[in-house]
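# step 3/5: fold
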Amino acid sequence: MSEDVNLTLDTRQTLGKAVHQLRRDGLIPGVIHDHGKTSVPVMGKYNDVHKAYRTAGKHHPLKLKVGNKTYTALIKNAEFNPKTNLLDHIVFGAVQADERVTTEIPVRLSEDIPAERASLIVINQLDSVEVEALASSLPDELIVDASGLVEIGDKLTVADIVAPAGVVILTEPEHAIATVYEPSALAAANDAAGGDAEPEEPASTAETAEGPAEESASGSDAETPPKE
């Protein structure tokens, strides 16, 4: 995405539980964190804020206009109401174009996957990776070459991602992105577990009788944005 994402916000005096009325009025409360300075409570029209979130995600800088001030910022957190699935609160982090930032970038497999042409199942195991880069150089997504997914047991890991110049991937390189499984093995595992089975690591043709290497799992705790 090369075009700027622009969003006009207003400063917000309404804090605490009173923000419920803002939501009823079609406004979304938020806050801008700016390099240790006093945070700026803001609000914006629901449709405008939601559109900006859908367009920029957490990896594309936005141009925020708040009164007579402008900010370049990344969306740090977006909180949704668990009952209505509507956007409830948004947190922005101001950045400089020449500042190195850490954020998550979506990962996508390339379109042509030989294993799928052979009627095998490819399970995606990672949707995004953590990266560090200049705010102005953050890619919108990282596409992984899936041509090596051919046989049962073939896998792609974070180490297979070719990052653009200046982008450092922080996620563990051995973390699996996608693995090829045999359909009948998945079906049997699901039947045995009542439909909720997690597929075991398939044996590949390159493995010895000692079995597959142990794969580590990683996860991250979701940050809860401040409610005001």
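# step 4/5: annotate
Residues 204-227 have pLDDT under 50 and may be disordered.
# step 5/5: archive (pending)
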